[in-house]
Amino acid sequence: MDALQRIEQALEAAIAKGMGDDSPPLLRQAVRHAVLTPASRVRPRLCLAVALACGDDVPAVTDAAAASLELLHCASLVHDDLPCFDDADMRRGQPSVHRAYGERLAVLAGDGLIVLAFENLAWHTLRHPERLAPLLMIVGRAVGLKDGIVAGQAWECEEQVELSEYHRQKTAALFAAATEAGAAAAGRNPAEWRTLGANLGEAYQVADDLRDVAGDAEELGKPVGQDAAHARPSAVAALGVDGALERLVGLIREALDSIPTCPGADKLRALVVGEMQRLLPPPIADDFAQRLAATGH
């Protein structure tokens, strides 16, 4: 079974176990719409890749960690699309949850997915309780009030924002959690893997900022031009396209250099570079590849 199959199977199982047949039907539909719409699953794939590089000795725990991270990411998207934030019509090429099911069910679906993520971790660590506490700390911090995506979203409510801090909390937090959780799920030291995830997360946000000004809405499955429309902090607004691309190259270079020595290091590096090229619009992706190659990577 490849990584994406593992993730989709784990997500299906988590929703089935967490909701059951007697849950409110519309809530069930909203949750499935939020989670099971086809997506790239970047964060859980990163979690699995790190676990595999570390040995992946208990795949059930790895799959639970990966699925829980994706459940939390999906919850954040549901809330981010709400009228009080972006008021987005589309997500992943489909109507956003609040457009399809109404604002009340969107709020409830997002809240429920957050709870389900932690339940899912508990269910699958019963036979390996020593791995639960580290995973709870990693995942909890990634969504929390201090350094997590809740804090990151809240910066959009402030008049003045420090761009790197905003990116670190809104996006990099879950990426850092993905690499740390992959190591913790495999019984390894998560601290060694945090730099990789944190840099990738910030790089992903910079790439998303570039896509917002140079991407195609139909291809992305969501509107473009949203940063300017909502006056959101953006690497492109702060640095320009060329400066943002240079920042992106620097973050990826640092991320690649931070990968600890392990049997799967080369495969992981290839995954990181390939994923970043996939994210960027074609002309920018080519420029990124050339600049990264010039650094020796």
UniProtKB/TrEMBL annotation:
One of its GO terms (molecular function) is prenyltransferase activity. Its cofactor is Mg(2+). One of its GO terms (biological process) is phospholipid biosynthetic process. InterPro entries: Isoprenoid_synthase_dom_sf (IPR008949), Polyprenyl_synt (IPR000092), Polyprenyl_synt_CS (IPR033749). Keywords: Isoprene biosynthesis, Magnesium, Metal-binding, Transferase. CDD domains: Trans_IPPS_HT (cd00685). Pfam families: polyprenyl_synt. PANTHER family: FARNESYL DIPHOSPHATE SYNTHASE. This is Geranylgeranyl pyrophosphate synthase. It comes from Halochromatium salexigens. The lineage of its organism: Bacteria, Pseudomonadati, Pseudomonadota, Gammaproteobacteria, Chromatiales.
